[in-house]
Design a protein that fits this description.
Order of helices and strands: EHEHHEHHHHEHEHHHHHH
Bound molecules: adenosine-5'-diphosphate, tryptophan
CATH topology of the largest domain: Rossmann fold
Shape: globular
Mean pLDDT: 96
Number of strands: 5
Strand order of the largest sheet: 1-2-3
Strand content: 5-15%
Helix content: 55-70%
Structural class: mainly alpha
CATH class of the largest domain: Alpha Beta
CATH superfamily of the largest domain: HUPs
Distance between the termini: 29 Å
Number of domains: 2
CATH architecture of the largest domain: 3-Layer(aba) Sandwich
């Protein structure tokens, strides 16, 4: 089984990225041949500062490796180190119906957030399809917001296969329903573009302050809270704490007697402990950038060889070779 996923280097990675995509992807590494990449071509649709892209790409590499991506097992690389994917994007775009892209909600969402409408932003699902199809990927672990793009990928692959003969493997999205949408500090979906994120490797004081500022209701600590499972701090606690610890806090909140201040303090502590080991690993990696660079170069070399095979197959079927 080939497992593939990518993440854009568009800012500091947060708990939504971690629980929605990175953790499932890291856990899947042992079940097959995994390829994970830093989607720097994709970031060009919304980020126009070269130095920021470079720095973010390095940060994503450090974050992913610190969180447990195992480069002995998994190919880890920068998308742009496999330029074959842009050629495949062209081949795919010629069989992609306009209507298919027009139905993608992410384009409209991004425009609504103020990102400039460009051809690249509109056609980005075709690049994503090429990312997936060029490695004969079977499984794509992503958060729920990316499901539509994997479905588009399947449609494009089916279309190409119909026109030019069996060429591409059809991939399946893999979405963890329990963490499909991680809530942010304001209760909406956690997202960089909503400014409601908790960073995986946030600075201690800053994250403590963010968590302590989560707005709750005005019920007194003593009051029982039958809706304890809806409480934002409890929902986040369920992600970062051991199940029995999270359940204990939920029960105490439901019964009454647990104040919101104490709950938020506990949430911060659980968050901090959850990433303690990874934080140490990240600091080691940051002091050994040559190693990180080697990992990415080695990953790219091996990914490129796989990509070449599939691209050659597609070129041949399309009469280009
Ligand atoms: P953002 O919304 O912060 O820009 P991205 O769109 O770059 O995040 O998402 C990268 C990956 O993380 C995707 O697979 C996406 O589905 C996942 N992801 C992002 N935010 C969340 C969230 N709040 N809950 C679950 N998964 C998420
Ligand atoms: N579009 C994804 C996002 O914004 C990132 C991505 C690019 C991706 N190519 C991919 C994810 C291929 C999975 C597979 O989060």
């Amino acid at each position: 089984m080939r497992i593939l996923s990518g993440i854009q280097p568009s800012g500091a990675l947060h708990l939504g990225n971690y629980f929605g995509m990175m953790k499932p992807a890291i856990e899947l590494q042992v079940q097959g041949e995994a390829l994970y990449f830093i989607a720097d071509y994709h970031s060009m649709t919304s980020l126009f500062e070269p130095e920021v892209r470079r720095r973010n790409s390095l940060d994503v590499a450090l974050d992913f490796l610190a969180c447990g991506l195992d480069p002995e097992r998994t190919l880890f690389f920068r998308q742009s180190d496999v330029p074959e994917v842009t050629e495949l994007t062209w081949l795919l775009s010629t069989v992609t119906p306009m209507g298919l892209l027009e139905r993608c909600t992410s384009y409209k969402d991004k425009i609504a957030k103020g990102i400039a409408a460009s051809h690249g932003l509109f056609s980005y699902p075709v690049l994503m399809a090429a990312d997936i199809l060029i490695y004969d990927s079977n499984v794509v672990p992503v958060g729920r917001d990316q499901k539509q793009h994997v479905e588009v990928t399947r449609d494009i692959a089916i279309k190409f296969n119909e026109i030019y003969g069996e060429t591409f493997v059809l991939p399946e999205p893999r979405i963890r329903e329990e963490v499909a949408v991680v809530p942010g500090l304001d209760g909406q979906k956690m997202s960089k573009s909503y400014g409601n994120t908790i960073e995986i490797f946030g600075e201690e004081k800053a994250v403590r302050k963010q968590i302590m500022s989560i707005v709750m209701d005005s019920r007194t600590p003593q009051e029982p809270k039958p809706d304890a499972d809806q409480n934002l701090a409890i929902r986040l606690m369920k992600l970062v704490a051991a199940p029995d610890v999270a359940r204990e806090f939920e029960d105490r909140l439901r019964a009454g007697g647990l104040g919101y201040g104490d709950l938020k303090k506990a949430l911060f502590q659980q968050y901090w402990d959850c990433f303690a080991q990874a934080r140490g690993k990240r600091a080691e990696l940051a002091a050994n950038l040559d190693y990180v660079d080697r990992v990415l170069r080695d990953g790219a070399g091996r990914a490129r060889a796989l990509a070449r095979t599939v691209l050659d197959r597609a070129r041949k079927h399309a009469g280009l070779a």
